[in-house]
Amino acid sequence: MNLTLIVWRQPDAKAQGQLVKYDVADISPDMSFLEMLDVLNERLIQKGEAPIAFDSDCREGICGTCGMVINGMAHGPLPATTACQLHMRHFKDGDTITIEPWRANAFPVLKDLVVDRGAFDRIIQAGGFVSVRTGSAPEANSLPVPKPHADRAMDAAACIGCGACVAACPNASATLFTAAKISHLGLLPQGQPERARRALAMVSQMDKEGFGGCTNIGECTAACPKEISQDVIARMNRDYLKASVTEV
Amino acid sequence: MELKSNAPSGPLETAWERHRDELKIVNATNKRKYTVIVVGSGLAGASAAASLAELGYNVECYCFQDSPRRAHSIAAQGGINAAKNYQNDGDSVYRLFYDTIKGGDFRSRESNVYRLAQVSVNIIDQCVAQGVPFAREYGGYLDNRSFGGAQVSRTFYARGQTGQQLLLGAYSALSRQIGLGNVKMFPRTEMLDLVVIDGRARGIVTRDLVTGKIDCRVGDAVVLGTGGYGNVFYLSTNAKGCNTSAIWRAHKKGAYFANPCYTQIHPTCIPVSGDHQSKLTLMSESLRNDGRIWVPKKKGDDRSPDQIPEADRDYYLERKYPSYGNLVPRDVASRNAKQVCDEGHGVGPGGLGVYLDFSDAVKRLGAAVIRERYGNLFDMYNRITGEDPNKVPMRIYPAIHYTMGGLWVDYNLMSNVPGLFVVGEANFSDHGANRLGASALMQGLADGYFILPYTIGDYLAKSKSAKVGADHAAFQESTKAVTEQIKRFLSIRGKRTVDSFHKELGKIVWDDCGMARTEKSLKHALGRIPELRAEFWKNVNVLGGNDELNQSLEKAGRVADFIDLAELMCRDALARTESCGGHFREESQTPDGEALRDDKNFSYVAAWEYKGENQAPLMHKEVLTFENIHLAQRSYQ
């Protein structure tokens, strides 16, 4: 396959970035999208040009490191697929593909396609946990959890923290990410003691980080590689509202 | 020099308890005066950092990823073992201990493995309390599945994402401590050197991967939880960033590297599709619970699998190992796959693949049950290959997955360098020559939650180290060496990319020190690696500068270390003329092609001491004694 790529290049956080065009020849349909970028980078280095910086690690869709907007879509055109899991067989010979970083004020660009998602970590640090110190746990089977609850908690816990929800949202809101963690822990008995406190603290941190508000557009769910449902947002809003009137 | 494990003598069952009672404790109010540096934020690193901070230590944690949540533990799929015996099927601490020793082909330390089996039950309790959403039965109690190398069901799991959920549990505990100000977290920061002062590990030199800033970090102890070195093979199931640099540079500063030739090949990976391949994808071996492995009986049979009748299929694992069948340990399953492919029965491109077939399981259990158990793995396979495993059997082939070797540690998880502790895959301790499935997660969390927090206190309480600052000559020397190496990479401006060297190295070690090794192949590799190193330092091309995010520069440092490690790995493999576990020397096999150990001559840990550039390393031995287990030829027939 022969392709034309239009890629966001930005030397560092302060520099002005721009879209740059590259012709990429002889791409195999069995390559992954990131392997195609690897091939381009090898060729750029051979020509003495700076390779395109992009994040990736596990390359099997679970670590959440990779993330780029491909033809206007976070992680590209396939549903439930991270950029690293996307294969070139889903493109056609002669295609022009535009590649940009996540765009959100709370995710500043560090270089080319690499952004800083530290805001997500700080949201978790604000309350995305059960406060149980090592050693104080009771016997695991002393607390039965109804299977449907455990399954729904697992659905929410599947979030990989990639940030596609933010990139896809016209408001650059982090609501799906935050709500997924609040739902995961809120659905389990272990999460009950801190349920109200957690919702208040995490939502407050999310706002502090400069993410936009949620207006129930649903782009987040559509872009989510783990198909986290918008239901978690309703659950978070309920927990938040309830906590706002009951917690003093 | 003979190495001592420092394991307590006396009955194994009470050894850890007796040892803990004897360990010194740092007074609660004094703990905050100690700084512990933790490198790596996977299961072992994150659980250690969180637990140490809960105890009151001042903790700094470093990871090269953009967030501690991304460490490669996250990719473990299948599960975590624990001797809970919830299934009432006869499991016990002893049985988990025995299975692990036997699975490791009698090349691990009894005392460490027994303790691992003991604390396995606490891990499950801890993770459940954190809110890890393990699979449950309708009664609300925890579910188990069975796994390779065991005849009981003791594996706990969270769909096919057990590693992710356990890591997010440890990450949440770590995040809580970061939020409380007890852990200072340094993401996108790489350790480039270990600093040893007066014979003790006193800190590290780091590089900020965004700005290039080189920094000196002083501590009272250093903990490395930096994972394995599988990426020495270039193609492995490890994440792209996984590297050996932290443990290799510690090795160069005096830490012994133990059993580097013990590498594990995982039997259920997706076959390579071409030269562009950047990594391999593993599918959990839990698939072997319900999938049946077969190849066509006729060589070069190119009929589509559904056109091959039962009579023309060879379910070779079930045929050769009737009692374990498709659940034989990883090394046995991998070698058999290689063997049938080498004999010309392989399927798919290049004949490097065997079928893993779910059609019988679907008939027996229904499509819905199979979907629930393996849905995400089926999706993953479909995405990569474009084929649907519900309709056609999967094609699988072995790939490098885990490294049992690592820095040598004693019973306290401390290396031979006082104050340097090593946890998780980065150490060598528990899996011998072959790790059983669902045991890596168990070991990482055992080390971090339940062992290190006790043993590090003993070290700190006993050591009276002088106060040192970053201005100490040793820190300055390290900084200088690190800076000079970076300058050197940037000034070579040769003709070849870093990746091209990494790929070439990978091919050498895969061909010569992979699934099967011979004296000839290892000597070949030991000739090729120094040539590759010489070319690398003359002809590598690293563009850009240090004061920026420079991924080629990061990779250059890691590949330089992989080249050095590869040489030690081949040297270790050459010295060990027996076969054991993942280390298969073709010269040493039973008449039916199984690994043949030589207990008389090789019942030891080979711990290598670095002697300087262009110097032969020196091997030290820790003799393995088995007082509780009778050494036997491993048999899964």
Task: Give the arrangement of secondary structure elements.
The complex is a heterodimer of chains A (248) and B (637).
Chain A (H helix, E strand, L loop, with lengths): L2 E7 L8 E7 L8 H14 L22 E2 L2 E2 L21 E5 L8 E3 L2 E2 L2 H10 L19 H11 L6 H5 L6 H12 L8 H14 L10 H5 L7 H16 L2
Parallel strand pairs in A: 1-5
Antiparallel strand pairs in A: 1-2, 3-4, 3-5, 6-7
Helix pairs in contact in A: 2-6, 3-5, 5-6, 5-8, 6-8
Chain B lengths: L14 H8 L12 E5 L3 H13 L2 E5 L17 E2 L11 H11 L6 H21 L24 E2 L5 H18 L3 E4 L2 E9 L2 E9 L5 E5 L2 E4 L20 H8 L4 E2 L4 E7 L17 H4 L1 E5 L16 E2 L1 H5 L9 H13 L11 E4 L1 H7 L1 H19 L8 E10 L2 E2 L12 E3 L17 H23 L10 H20 L5 H16 L5 H21 L11 H25 L23 H4 L1 E6 L8 E6 L14
Parallel strand pairs in B: 1-2, 1-9, 2-5, 9-17
Antiparallel strand pairs in B: 3-4, 6-7, 7-8, 10-16, 10-18, 11-15, 12-13, 12-14, 14-15, 18-19
Helix pairs in contact in B: 2-5, 2-12, 3-4, 4-12, 10-11, 14-15, 14-16, 15-16
The unreliable regions of chain B are: none
CATH architecture of the domain at 473-612 in chain B: Up-down Bundle
Cα radius of gyration of chain B in angstroms: 24 Å
Main sheet: strand order of chain B? 5-2-1-9-17
Instruction: Examine the coordinates and then state which fold CATH places here, giving the name of the CATH topology of the largest domain in chain A.
Output: Fumarate Reductase Iron-sulfur Protein, Chain B, domain 2
Series of H and E elements of chain A: EEHEEEEEHHHHHHH
What overall geometry of chain B do the principal axes of the alpha carbons give? globular
Beta-strand percent range of chain B? 5-15%
How many β-strand runs of chain B? 19
| Outline of chain A | elongated
Number of helices of chain A: 8
For the report, how would you describe the main beta sheet of chain B? 5 strands, parallel
CATH superfamily of the domain at 473-612 in chain B: Fumarate reductase/succinate dehydrogenase flavoprotein-like, C-terminal domain
Please report the distance between the alpha carbons of the first and last residues of chain A.
Answer: 62 Å
The overall average pLDDT of chain A, rounded, is 97
Q: With helices defined by DSSP (H or I, 4 residues minimum), what is the helix count of chain B?
A: 17
Overall domain count of chain A: 2
Biggest interface and which pair forms it? A-B, 80 and 80 residues
CATH homologous superfamily classification of the largest domain in chain A: Alpha-helical ferredoxin
